[in-house]
Amino acid sequence: MTVLTRPILEINLNHLLANYRLLTQIAAPAVPAAVIKDDSYGLGAAEVVPLLYNQGSCRHFFVAHAIEGERIAALAPQAEIYVLQGIGQDSLEIFNSIPQLTPVISDPQMYDFWKANGKPAGKAVIHIETGLNRLGFREYELQQLNSENLQDFCMVMSHLACGDEKEHFMNRHQLENFEALKNLYFADIPGSLSASDGVFLGDKFRQNMVRLGAAMYGINTAPYRANQMQNVVTIKAPVLQIEPLSRGEFVGYSCTYRASSERKIAIVSIGYGDGIPRSLSNIGKVFFKIRGKLAECRIIGRVSMDNIICDVSDADGVEIGDFAYLADDFYTLDDMARDAGTISYEIMSRVGKNTRYLRQYIRD
Amino acid sequence: MTVLTRPILEINLNHLLANYRLLTQIAAPAVPAAVIKDDSYGLGAAEVVPLLYNQGSCRHFFVAHAIEGERIAALAPQAEIYVLQGIGQDSLEIFNSIPQLTPVISDPQMYDFWKANGKPAGKAVIHIETGLNRLGFREYELQQLNSENLQDFCMVMSHLACGDEKEHFMNRHQLENFEALKNLYFADIPGSLSASDGVFLGDKFRQNMVRLGAAMYGINTAPYRANQMQNVVTIKAPVLQIEPLSRGEFVGYSCTYRASSERKIAIVSIGYGDGIPRSLSNIGKVFFKIRGKLAECRIIGRVSMDNIICDVSDADGVEIGDFAYLADDFYTLDDMARDAGTISYEIMSRVGKNTRYLRQYIRD
């Protein structure tokens, strides 16, 4: 008799490191940088950064916010940490106290702010806009920089809008824009155009530095072919209860499911409070490992905060205390995201921040 | 010249406490209990529990997992803490070390486990199923309990499936089931049937104890009428950059937005990494406060991890460093949830767990 109550989040650091190394190899001779913003996409920067720094020899990290850089600076003492959201009044103190942090400056007003405050870090990365229309200097703004201004930058970067669609016209368009602007304004400093997805678009896209994020965490950033990356995330949760359901009975909030025949249901101890998308209501899947075989079962009714209900009528042998697998190598977060109508990045970011999981890091 | 980079999450503890008090008043003479599972729906149990305990005199708390109870037990030393997901091998140690934690037992196998391990806490709440078909003893399982078993329970609870729909047939059905089973098996112990939503369904639904969660956090759990609760959550994020957009230009990942005329866009420093639903892509709204007036602006293109892009063409006067409001009393999480195709509970739970926010608790 096993009774368990707590969901488990497994993060395979061996696979994460192997992905980093494979990406580094594909991208060579471009310098690899690791994107560890959003707490390493939720997987835990406190674990991921030392791994990549010590075992992967990674010396370049990207965070979104200065506060994220502050949290990991001591874990990677010889590394450069680039701050994508840049520098402002609300992060000045952090930049002043941690010289490892280099701001990524995306706008003339931010550039002026940085200069007016004594240029923390002494140098900056400049973000230029090439087609995404998100952060970055537009060309009319670059034209207003004089040659002295241009000396302030140690690297130029941009970001692809459609790097996960190999043949999208925007990729070529952004590459041409990037190279033209780089040649014109930043011929003497290194350039970085691509995140994980761009690594697979060919060597021109790799430039001098690649920013490895999603693919390192196991996400397929080249969905036009099978994933070359190893799966990093496993989510599983125990069955709390198994019950018969009579024909005509309703399940879950708002009675969105009604049994059209006798069913057997399992109540599983995980819900949207643990980051499982509520949009999987009546759509999602879980898997049980029964005598070495996988049994696929549907989520029925609404996903609630702490529980989901699954139809286990056809999964003979499922017992209380068994684990329902929400994500693993046979059904990855990419698969879950497709069923949930979103991208795995969003789910990973949500799942990883939940503190109710028993969190297990797998490493050699 | 203001340059800011970091999003802000404001949690109004005055409003939260006022909501708790109002709900307590409405539900009287039922005993109020506070539902603080999922880290107080993400808003921070470490802040919410002392507030309710010290200023609200709350002496009954509900968590989902034992680990959540462990984290707050010392903050409410004289309170009872009920653990909705119950007790298992993976939480036994916590129950044994913290006598304040009372398991909610929902299944015969869990009951046997609890007994076989010496009945931690000495007593338990029994969860009975009345129509939700989630956790709880079914009647055939209650029939197998003898009179000695029944002495083990200090309270009987169930949970409504459709408490937010005043006229739903399921409410009456569950109330009748609950009263029948309570009279038959648990006539001498207190009963608890309703969470926040049930408080508004009339005194029969309030039984002896009400479990106040969502409404206390400002969510409208009686959406068939105007919200009686005060708003608790404000989300705002600074504008990093403002740029013109030419006709025909694309915005954001996968080029999902294309400008049909000249526009002005603002890049705002918040994204799904901060819990903003990606399903708000091309649908969501933000608001600016300009010279005392609210300007509503649309989110265009995809919501990305760290940024959203807004059409500010019609918001004259918006500047870099101004705050875009994602949620506030004029556009609550309920409103955002409606636009995002989900419920505010899910968004609140996601937003609240993000550590990139500058988090500000408002209190007297």
Provide an overview of this structure:
The structure is a homodimer of 364-residue chains. With 364 residues, chain A is of the alpha/beta class. Chain A folds into 2 domains: 13-217, TIM Barrel (Alpha-Beta Barrel), CATH 3.20.20.10; 231-362, Lyase, Ornithine Decarboxylase, Chain A, domain 1, CATH 2.40.37.10. The first copy, chain A, has 13 helices and 18 strands. Chain A has helices spanning 13-27, 37-41, 45-55, 66-72, 92-97, 108-116, 139-142, 147-150, 169-185, 196-199, 203-206, 333-340, 344-351; strands at residues 8-12, 31-35, 60-63, 80-83, 101-105, 124-127, 153-157, 191-192, 209-212, 233-245, 250-251, 257-258, 263-268, 285-290, 293-300, 308-311, 323-327, 358-362. In chain A, the strands form 3 sheets. Chain A has an 8-stranded parallel beta sheet with strand order 8-7-6-5-4-3-2-9. In chain A, strands 10-13-16-15-14-17 form a 6-stranded antiparallel β-barrel. A two-stranded antiparallel ribbon of chain A has the order 11-12. In chain A, a hairpin with a 7-residue loop joins strand 15 and strand 16. Chain A is elongated. Chain A starts with 7 loop residues before the first strand and ends with a strand. The mean pLDDT of chain A is 97. At the A-B interface, helix 2, helix 4, helix 6, strand 10 and strand 11 of A face helix 2, helix 4, helix 6, strand 10 and strand 11 of B.
Strands ordered across the widest β-sheet of chain A: 8-7-6-5-4-3-2-9
Poorly predicted runs of chain A are none
CATH architecture title of the largest domain in chain A: Alpha-Beta Barrel
Structural domain tally of chain A:
2
Classified in CATH, the superfamily of the largest domain in chain A is Alanine racemase
Report the β-strand fraction of chain A as a percent range.
15-25%
Radius of gyration of chain A: 23 Å
CATH fold type of the largest domain in chain A: TIM Barrel
Largest interface: A-B, 80 and 80 residues
Number of helices of chain A: 13
The overall average pLDDT of chain A, rounded, is 97
Q: State the end-to-end distance of chain A.
A: 32 Å
Secondary-structure content class of chain A? alpha/beta
